[in-house]
Amino acid sequence: MSAGIVFDIREFTVHDGPGIRTSVFLKGCPLSCSWCHNPEGRARQPQIMRSPAGERVAGKEYTAVELAELLNKQADILRANEGGVTFSGGEPLLQSEFVAQVIDLLDDVHVLLDTSGYAGEDDFRRVAERSKLVFFDLKLVDPAAHRRYTGVDNAPILRNLRVMSVIGVPFVIRVPLIPGVTDTDANLAAIVDTVRGLPGLVRVDLLPYNKAAGAKYESVGMEFKPDYDETRELNVNTAILQHANVPVRIA
Ligand code: SF4
C-alpha cells in the first residue's frame, strides 16, 4: 500500500458534485495555470502557509488505509444525502496509484474524479474507470494558447478525453472562464467541436472567473502574476453551446 499527500479535506461540500460530499484535495499539479486559486496544491511536497492568523502546513501524508478509514466513517451520511467522495487537487492523477487504492477500500461510496485530464493514459484509466462520475477540465483547445497559459501541452488532455468517451463513465466538461483567454467565442466554439456527440458527456459547466484567485499566493511565498486582464468583462456565451445542442450550465 502506498502513501499519498493531501493538502485539504473538506466535509459536507455541496459544490463538488452531486449531493453532500467529502472532497479530498491531493497535493501536486503538473500545470501552472495563471488563474490557479489553490497555489498550495501545486507543489508535491508539504509546505508552510503563513498568514496573519499564524502558520499551518499544507500537505499531510496518509496511507491508503488511513484515508479510506476516515472516509468510510462518513459513508452512511454521504450515501443518505445522495453524495459521496470527490478526489480533486492539485491534480489527483499525479497520485493515481494511491487514489485507486483508497477507492478500492471504500464502502460503496459514490466516487467523483475532478481532473485536469493531464496524465498518462494508464494513470487516467486507473482512477477514471473506478469512478462513477468525472469532472474533466477543458481549458483551451488551441495548443499554443494552452502551453502559454498552463505551461503544458494539451495533447495528453485531448487523448484522455477520447479515452473518457469510451470507458463508459459519465463525465462533465468543466471550463473555467478566464477573461480574454478561455471565454472567447473562438475557444468556446472549439470546445463545442471537441466535445459534441462524445458518448458519456453529461453537460458542459462554465465556471465564471474567481476574482479571489490571487488571495493565497503570498501565504506560500509565491507571486500572483495573471497575464490577462482580470477587470475585463467576462464573455459568458452559453448560446454557442445551446445552438450546438450541447447541454450547458453555469456552475
Ligand atoms: S490544473 Fe487546477 S490545480 Fe493545477 S495549476 Fe491549473 S488550476 Fe491549479
Question: Can you describe this structure?
Answer:
The protein contains eight helices and eleven strands. By secondary structure, the protein is an alpha/beta fold. The chain has a single domain (3-250), classed as Aldolase class I (TIM Barrel, Alpha-Beta Barrel). It has a nine-stranded mixed β-sheet with strand order 5-1-2-6-7-8-9-10-11. The protein has a two-stranded antiparallel ribbon with strand order 3-4. β6 (84-89), α3 (96-105) and β7 form a beta-alpha-beta unit. Bound molecules: iron/sulfur cluster.
| Termini separation | 36 Å
Q: What assembly state would you assign to the polypeptide chains in this entry?
A: single chain
The SSE order reads EEEEEHHEHEHEHHEHEHE
Unreliable sequence segments: none
Under CATH, the homologous superfamily reads Aldolase class I
- Classify the fold: give the CATH topology: TIM Barrel
Which percent range describes the beta-strand content?
A: 25-35%
Number of strands: 11
Bound chemical compounds: iron/sulfur cluster
If classified by CATH, what would the architecture be? Alpha-Beta Barrel
Largest sheet: 9 strands, mixed
* Portion of residues within helices: 25-40%
Roughly how many Å is the radius of gyration? 18 Å
Task: Report the top-level CATH class.
Answer: Alpha Beta
Strand order of the largest sheet: 5-1-2-6-7-8-9-10-11
The whole-number mean of residue pLDDT values reads 96
Shape: globular
Q: Which structural class is indicated by helix and strand composition?
A: alpha/beta
